[in-house]
Amino acid sequence: MISTGPFFLDQIFFIVFPYVAVIIFLLVSIRRYRTEAFTFSSLSSQFLENKQHFWGLVPFHFGIITILLGHVIAFLFPREVLAWNSVPLRLYILEASAFIAALLTLIGLGALIFRRVTDPKVKKVTSWADWVVFASFVVQILSGIYVAIFHSWGSSWFASLAAPYLWSLVTLSPDITYVTAMPWMVKLHIVSAWLMIAFAPFTRLVHILVAPNPYFWRKPQVVRWYSLLRNRV
Amino acid sequence: MPQHLIERSNVFPKNKLLAGMIVFLLVPPMQLVAQDPATDYRQNCMSCHTIGGGRLTGPDLKDVTKRKDGTWLAKFLVDPKAVIDSGDPYARQLVEESRGVIMPTLPGMTPQRAQSLLDLIDAESKLEKSQFQGVKLSERPFTPEDIVVGQRLFVGTAKLKNGGPACNSCHNVHGLSGFGGGGLAPDLTTVMERYGGRKTLSTWLTAPATPTMQSVFKPHPLDPEEVLPLVAYFQSTLQRNPEDPSTARLNFVLVGLAGALLVLALFDLIWNNRLKSVRRALVREKRLEAVHE
Fold this sequence. Notes:
The structure holds two protein chains of two kinds. Chain A is an all-alpha fold. Chain A has helices at residues 8-35, 52-76, 78-85, 88-118, 120-124, 128-150, 154-170, 184-199.
């Protein structure tokens, strides 16, 4: 059981949070997909405004997908990542690339938030859930960028510390010694990640689960717009 | 897509969610592995303390229970930082004698486990020669070759034999080329001075005892053949000043910013004409038609 003492809070944050988050994520996602399938989308507002949207959406998604993929790769192949990083130049190339992706994510997020606030049509369709998503991304991305600059080199220590911590959760034998002595900004980054996973199924983030990947290889389609003619018919 | 659906939706009934959480909490998540005190001592204490071999980073523990009562010692073992922060004069004195190095708090240290460690220390103190009198380390003088090997181990170009990650994953030493070493953990430029010299630092490195170092290096310990060149390297870096200006971090940020701008320019180049030729043209055409009708 959870023991009291100096590591009580760490046990809540790094053992209870992740399991509760994953359970909520799975159960609520399935439930929502089965009962309210039509809400299972990104709730795109591209039709309402698509010029500013480009400069938010494109950098944000290129950035976040690269970053997330980086975390997953370091989780699945920690030894290989360490082997790659054993030459300082390669380490620096990897870290700089990841940092560029993080900055793109931040720039994209900034543009998206600006658009939400300034465009009247888009503002109209913005719900409280969208603001929860934006706020959690702001915390997550800023803490990640802070860690990348001031607590480097994340790609190496993720492989040595975060990967075994995550695996200890997967194998149901949680070991928090990897994270208890981490700087608080790293802890914030981890805890806010668990919170995001828990909130995701209640928000538009569920579109991650139904991303239309076939768009990558299907033929282009032209969508014609003729609503202005409708009045005449 | 109707936004209000999300706000109003009763996505998951509360009672079922609660049931799920309770089931989870019934599963004991923390594994507290009981281990025998000698192993415990070897893994967690030996890097800083001897029993009858003189002080290392921490004091020699021979007859420690005669110097201070058992209740105080057990309390200190469970959470050293809390006792130090409480302003306890003896704890403060210990920190001073250790040159400011604070004894790490061990996850899973209970009063019972602390007591069995104290019993072990008591028993070992009575022996003429304790098995924990100290690690045998080579005392041969450092060569310039050692320093080179040490630096290669530090930055990772020479692999650590037992598979541990290179020091620069988390630590920096002033004057490294490129973007420098890591910033997660303390800068090691003057670590030899902080830890009180060759013997203490070498012993510490054979079984690092801070929580993060321990979790990484317990399964992949440093080889004695690696400790010597690393310590030689740390001796050589003592001449550098960690406070001297370094542009490594700034360079990293600038390269990142430049790279991000470059990628944005690339996006513009690739998709500059998107929607212009077909969709926006069609919309414009229809608008004009509507106006002319």
